């Protein structure tokens, strides 16, 4: 179901790890003919740059010094989003385990967030956009036209992440994945800087028993209702 929104319109989608933000956001943006921006990939790109340049991850001052001068940008081509760091497209390296282990910590550093939030807002100011992450409705786009917070049970989210890992032939057991989901939830929701939380004016959608298409259709219906009222 495609609809066309003629003027600038911003949609913020937040939620915990493996809740379906990426696939829902991509399909929704395609249906609306909007730009799609996964802010999590930007934090992963910074993390990858730190690791690949042998920055000491135990020294926050070293991290800050490196990130302050880090050249990072996002390029859009059709449905594809590329993250460019120091002139290199690093998109294919952002799901590796080492990045996964450090990204929550890197994301908690104030300088990192302020630098990326500034870039994210610049992109949103010039495009109709579906932006997904963990602090979009609360911090990045507090005045977004529509805010969605996706949720699902820990078991459902761990099952999704487990299937993703198995597709890459990574040898891992389900209990390890479930524990990783729980740990990421704890880190994201308790960090001092931009913790994961639902914006008071966000609409809560539980994806546990819903297909991606169901969720996308629900969001499009919400947009249609908003625009018919306005």
Write structural notes for this entry.
- The chain has 9 helices and 8 strands.
- The strands form 2 sheets. A 5-stranded parallel β-sheet has the order 2-6-1-7-8, with helices on both faces. The chain has a 3-stranded antiparallel β-sheet with strand order 3-4-5, with helices on one face.
- 50% of the residues lie in helices and 17% in strands.
- It is of the alpha/beta class.
- The chain has one domain (10-222): P-loop containing nucleotide triphosphate hydrolases (Rossmann fold), CATH 3.40.50.300.
- The longest helix has 18 residues, at 212-229.
- The protein is globular.
- Strand 4 and strand 5 form a beta hairpin.
- The H-level CATH homologous superfamily, spelled out, is P-loop containing nucleotide triphosphate hydrolases
Oligomer: single chain
Overall number of strands: 8
User: What string, H for helix and E for strand, traces the elements in order?
Assistant: EHEHHEEEHHEHEHHEH
Sheet having the most strands:
5 strands, parallel
> Kindly, what is the distance between the CA atoms of the first and last residues, rounded to a whole number of angstroms?
21 Å
Radius of gyration (Å): 17 Å
In short:
With 230 residues, the chain is of the alpha/beta class. The protein contains nine helices and eight strands. The model has no long low-confidence stretch (mean pLDDT 92).
């Amino acid at each position: 179901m495609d609809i066309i929104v003629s003027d600038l319109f911003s949609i913020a989608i937040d939620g915990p790890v493996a809740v379906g933000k990426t696939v829902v956001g991509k399909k929704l943006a395609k249906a609306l003919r909007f730009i799609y921006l996964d802010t999590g990939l930007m934090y992963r790109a910074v993390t990858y740059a730190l690791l690949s340049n042998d920055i000491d991850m135990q020294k926050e001052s070293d991290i800050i010094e490196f990130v302050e001068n880090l050249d990072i940008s996002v390029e859009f081509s059709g449905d594809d989003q590329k993250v460019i760091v120091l002139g290199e497209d690093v998109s294919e390296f952002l799901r590796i385990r080492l990045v996964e282990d450090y990204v929550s910590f890197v994301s908690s550093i104030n300088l990192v967030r302020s630098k990326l939030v500034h870039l994210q807002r610049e992109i949103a100011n010039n495009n109709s956009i579906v932006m997904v992450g963990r602090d979009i409705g609360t911090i990045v786009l507090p005045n977004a036209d529509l805010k969605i917070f996706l949720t699902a049970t820990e078991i459902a989210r761990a099952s999704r992440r487990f299937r993703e890992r198995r597709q890459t032939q990574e040898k891992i057991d389900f209990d390890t994945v479930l524990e990783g989901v729980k740990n990421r939830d704890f880190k994201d929701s308790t960090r001092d800087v931009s913790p994961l939380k639902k914006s008071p004016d966000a609409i809560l959608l539980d994806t546990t028993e819903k297909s991606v298409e169901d969720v996308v259709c629900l969001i499009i219906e919400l947009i249609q209702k908003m625009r018919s009222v306005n």
